[in-house]
Amino acid sequence: MEDIKIQKCNIDDLKELQKISKQTFTETFGPYNTDEHIEEYLERSYSISILRDELQDPDSKFYFLRFNDKPVAYLKLNFGKNTLGYDAEKGNMELQRIYVLKEYYRHGFGEMLFDKAVSEARDKHRTSICLGVWEHNNRALNFYTSMGFKKVSSHIFHMGDADQTDYVLNMKLN
Q1: How many CB atoms neighbour CB 117 within 10 A?
Q2: Are 110 and 139 in contact, with CB atoms under 8 Å apart?
């Protein structure tokens, strides 16, 4: 029988978190960027020291989705200040990451993590969720639109020396 669990990450999960972070980011964006840009981004965003700081930040939460005890997807939530122009003090939560290993696409794991994000937002009495999505990531855009998100603006995401456009999406919670 298959076993699926969503588990909050802690400092003991640091190496597993780094591994899945790097793998899922590379699977998702590697085909559209140079190897040099991907490597630079992985080092800047997923180094042990950066992930340790994020895991220890009281405004940040990470969760693994474990399938048969293997982390196959993860979620990162930000309850503090964010870069998307939405103020946490005004009831917003940033959904910073939902990533699923490519071999586990179409298992519903992204939706399970999304449901966890909504539950966390409601538990913290948040009134909206925002996130950024690369303008060419049609898979993610379709997913978030189907969940009720609306495009509200855009911002520049730096990938090496290439500027890319991320759409800022927002969803009001009832």
Answers
A1: 23
A2: no
Question: Does residue 94 lie within any of the structural domains?
Answer: yes
Q: Phi and psi of 96, rounded to 5°?
A: -80, -35
Where in the sequence is the domain holding 78, given as residue range(s)? 4-127
What are the structure tokens assigned to 72, written together? 């196959």
pLDDT in tens, 67-99: 999 999 999 999 987 666 655 556 889 999 999
CA contacts within 13 A on the Cβ side of 102: 10
Tokens 């969760």 sit on residue: 63
Choosing from 63, 99, 144, 167, the catalytic residue is 144
The count of domains in the chain is 1
Give phi and psi for 83, each to the nearest 5. Answer: -100, 10
CATH number at residue 17: 3.40.630.30
Average pLDDT, the chain: 92
Is 144 among the catalytic positions? yes
Q: How many CB atoms lie within 10 A of CB 110?
A: 22
